[in-house]
Write a structure and sequence with these properties.
about 130 residues; globular; mainly alpha; about 75% helix; 6 helices
Amino acid sequence: MPQVSKIRLDKKTEEELIKKLEMALAKIGSTQEMSSFLDSLLTKNEKIMVAKRLVVAILIQENYTDSQISRVLNLTRITVAKARLFYELRSGDLKIGIKKLEAEQNFEEFKKMLIALANYSIRAAGGYVKL
């Protein structure tokens, strides 16, 4: 997780900053603009962290276990368990974003790739993969 300064902003300022970020994200009109925006805003590791959170939610929705998800994404089971708890508490909100992704043509291919990777990891962990 990225570190947040120990010197906290007051709650009102934090809320205002978050609203501005949300507004900026909502107004971005294309994938190319979003990519450019995120490249200038986030480090590669931060983008990977956010992407993994999204993939964890997708795999939870597909009924994968915490240990399966942790193997696929190289996360600790504790991290996946926390993400699952967060997903269970806020799944309605997260499902909005996932539904938008599902509307994309290549989402099914992406999901199939994730599931294939998950299934491979499960077999490999059990020693069932032949080289």
